Amino acid sequence: MWLVGLAVFAAGLSTTLPLPLYVEYADGGGTGRLAAAFACYAGILILTAPLLGPLPDRIGRRNCTLIGLVLAGGSTLLLALWPGLGPLALARCMQGIAMGCISNAAGAWAAELAERQGATAEAASRQGARVVAMGTAGSFGAGPVFTLLNLLLWPEMRPPVVFWAHLALLVALLPAVARLPETFAGTRGAALRLPLFPRASMASTMAMLPAWGVTGVVLTSVPATLASLGHARAGAWAVAGMILAGTLAQQAFRAMPPLRAMRLGLPLLTLGAGLVFAGAILGSLWLLLLGAPLAGLAAYGLVYLGGLAAATAAAPQERPRATAGFF
Q1: Which of 38, 147, 212, 261 is the most exposed, fewest CB within 10 Å of its CB?
Q2: What pTM did the predictor assign?
């Protein structure tokens, strides 16, 4: 099961390794065009949800995961060879499809592997959610740190050596993942099916909207504000701190029931968001650096993990579609 989580982590790295280089990619194109390129990830993920949701049930968990790894590697290779705003937009589209493939398949795959080891359906759903949540949050936090450390050691090297290391990791993972047992061979079914929104978990799914919104604000406003204060590289560190705080919280609260995690996470999310907004308005470095990790702890460590576990537990026979609906 840990190999499934490593596949999620490796694919997630493709989305955040380039983060410290976004300003270079823009090359005078303006913040609006950069934001549009950045948003391609979410846009393509939403538009392709009816296709990616049922895909793991049509072609199997393993094949869907392998497709995601190949697309993630393609996005890294694209930016390594052709850095720029246009390639960034295309890479973000590839990353959106890659993460859609992997997140929908990996949670169900890990849960079904856990069931084969004797776990109950509810316990298996929670383990599958934890694999996806830790893989995504861990990679989202580690990616900028890896690139920043690379830039500190070799500031003039382009592309950064971590891009090639990421490609090497993906190449090594492909045969390893291909040898894992398939738990769902695939069925015919409809090619396009809407994501599933289980009624029992609708409230927890809707709670992710403010969580995604707050983390999105942190990803964009905190680096811009810190850059205006003369801390050009601090933004990526703050973003990494936000996500790593959430990853550590996932370990600390992994045994907490999903509903309790949501009830604890939403007030903390509100507090973290307030600190971030105040820091951005007042230009306060310390408010930003305090609010970002608190928002990450709440969003990734509590609301995200609890909500995903609740969604997949509410539909154990439709985990990929429930995961697609949650995202």
Answers
A1: 212
A2: 0.80
